[in-house]
Amino acid sequence: MHRVRAWATLAPAWSMTLALICVVAPAAPVGAATVDSENVVGIQLMEAPFDRKDDPRAQTSIVDHLPPAGEIQRKLKISNPTDRRQRVQLYAGAAAVEGERFRFGEGRQVNELASWISLDTDEIDMAVGKTVEVIATVKVPGNALAGERYAVIWASATSAPEPGSTVTDVHRVGVRLYLDIGTGGEPPSSFDIGEFTAGRLPGGQPSLTVRVRNTGGRALDMTGKVSLVGAPGVGAGPFDVVDGTTLAPGESGSVQVALPPDLPGGAHRAEAELASGLVRRTAAAQVAFPAPDVPRSPSALMRNPAVVLGSLLAISVLLLAALVLVLRARRRELAAANQ
User: Fold this and answer.
1) How confident is the model at residue 36 (pLDDT cuts 50, 70, 90)?
2) Is residue 327 part of a domain?
3) At the top level of its lineage, which domain of life is listed (predicted)?
4) How does pLDDT run across 153-211, given as a tens digit for each residue?
5) Is the CB of residue 287 less than 8 Å from the CB of residue 268?
6) Least confident span in 24-28, 44-48, 140-144, 206-210
7) Is the torsion defined by CA of 13, 17, 23, 24 positive or negative?
């Protein structure tokens, strides 16, 4: 039996707010190429609207706002970083923002936005080290309803099975699309920072969780940093938040920061600076990190008078219960013998 194994990589997501723009900026690389984890195929967004050239999210994702019947084009660069000739397939696939994550569909599953996307080629025969530019076009139907939609433009390549194996690896990398449909201007992007919670990861490493609520009309890809100030006034950080939190409009979620294992317990002032593209917010709160759990040996437990007393009491109760059961059984036997 021949099996297929799939690998997928999305370009890192940032955030961006765009006015209604149907003409793209001059073609110029706006972000580094994204290559799959096995270094088989790469993809790079080549252009973005001029008024968002400084927006970090515009470097890697297509984020735009169009009216019904609107249209945009974007240039992408596809690369073959391998030492062999290969065929790369291009297509648009479904995606959704749910559960605090940007989630893409399996295989070639499509949704409404993916069905509006066309590419000027769907397959490229690529020589070693070759790069090819392709144009992606998004045409919105005139009867499209208002709202934000999500998709991915994929570049996919396969690698032959290794000697003695029947597994073919499918590698794909993609560029995200966040497209809002509606008349008039684009909905604003905004968020509020909520509660700070100090804790520890399963292995005992201290962590900080910060609640965030998307109060705007566009999806957010959260980034940011957190700094700590201890009681003596000694600073720690800043520490990057863990990537991957994407919030749909109106959704609440959390960003997390993994902190150094040797961070002292006790009270700290946590200062967070979070962002989604050009939208930034800051907040601070007093937090107290719990002391790490220290496993205790049985001998140490038995040296604790409270533990010893509790154990003796539990044993006594069990013995008393057993004695009562035995006496009741003996009484029933004697009663039966006298009848």
Assistant:
1) low
2) no
3) Bacteria
4) 999 998 766 676 667 788 899 999 999 999 988 899 999 999 999 988 888 888 999 99
5) yes
6) 24-28
7) negative
**Do residue 145 and residue 195 come from a single domain?**
no
CA atoms within 13 A on the CB side of 155: 34
Backbone angles phi, psi at 162, to 5 degrees: -70, 155
* Number of domains observed in the structure of the chain: 2
Percent of the chain residues topping a pLDDT of 70 = 75
Domain hosting 262: range is 191-289
Euclidean distance between the first and the last CA atom of the chain, given in angstroms as a whole number: 77
202 with 105, same domain? no
Q: Which two tokens stand for residue 36?
A: 């799959």
Residue 322 phi/psi, 5-degree rounding, is: -65, -40
Closest CA to 100 of 210, 211, 209, 248: 248
Return the CATH number at 242. 2.60.40.10
Best CA proximity match to 103, nearest among 111, 211, 252: 111
Distance from C-alpha of 245 to C-alpha of 255, rounded to nearest angstrom? 6
Domain boundary residue, one of 264, 289, 314: 289
For 264-292, give the DSSP string: --EEEEEEEEEEETTEEEEEEEEEEEPPP
